[in-house]
Amino acid sequence: MFPQWETAFFLNSILLLPKEYPLFGKKRSNKPYIERIGSYAILINEDHKIGIVEATNANYFMLPGGGIEIGEDPIEALKREVLEETGYQIEAQNQIGIAGEYFFEKISGLYYKKIGLFYHVKLLAIAPITIIEPYHVFYWMDIEMALKKLFHPSQVWAVEHALK
């Protein structure tokens, strides 16, 4: 059976999203949520370590990636975000899956429904170029440790799903 799809109109971009996908967190009924679609990288090196980013301004760990900007497609956003956060140029290999999450962002004081598009990626260079976002620190980490440190449950799901 074919999955059912819904169209997401997002900042002048049109994305087809499945009607059902894993959804984490608890939605507070009395709060307005901003829907934010982003692309995120599952980057595993030859030593079987995963690349993760520490957001030092928010004090948590996350997968490299982030929001899709006006006019970007998900792969363009993925490449831009990974370069900004890690300094590495990458090539998207295949999509792992889609997962959503309700959460409150302490820094902005806003409630978000994040929809993550998760991709296996390959490094195109051995060393990073320049990291553009100074409050992000990139680490190669043992996968089990990364699973414990990742802040977003949707990203933990994506890593576990990628390893199956």
Verbal overview:
19% of the residues lie in helices and 45% in strands. The strands form three sheets. The chain has a five-stranded mixed beta sheet with strand order 3-8-9-4-7. The protein has a three-stranded antiparallel beta sheet with strand order 6-5-10. It has a two-stranded antiparallel ribbon with strand order 1-2. The chain is built from three helices and ten strands. The radius of gyration is 15 Å and the shape is globular. It is an alpha+beta fold and 164 residues long. The protein starts with a strand and ends with a helix.
List keywords for this structure.
164 residues, alpha+beta, Nucleoside Triphosphate Pyrophosphohydrolase, five-stranded mixed sheet, disordered N terminus
CATH architectural type: Alpha-Beta Complex
CATH superfamily: Nucleoside Triphosphate Pyrophosphohydrolase
State the low-pLDDT regions, or none: 1-12
Q: How many independent structural domains?
A: 1
Our count of helices gives: 3
Largest sheet: 5 strands, mixed
Mean pLDDT: 88
Which percent range fits the helix content? 10-25%
Number of strands: 10
Percent of sequence in beta strands? over 45%
Shape annotation? globular
CATH class: Alpha Beta
Using the CA coordinates, give the radius of gyration: 15 Å
* Alpha carbon gap, first and last residue: 22 Å
Briefly note the structural class of the backbone.
Answer: alpha+beta
Order of strands in the sheet with the most strands?
3-8-9-4-7
What name does the CATH topology carry? Nucleoside Triphosphate Pyrophosphohydrolase
SSE string, helix = H, strand = E? EEEEEEEHEEEHH
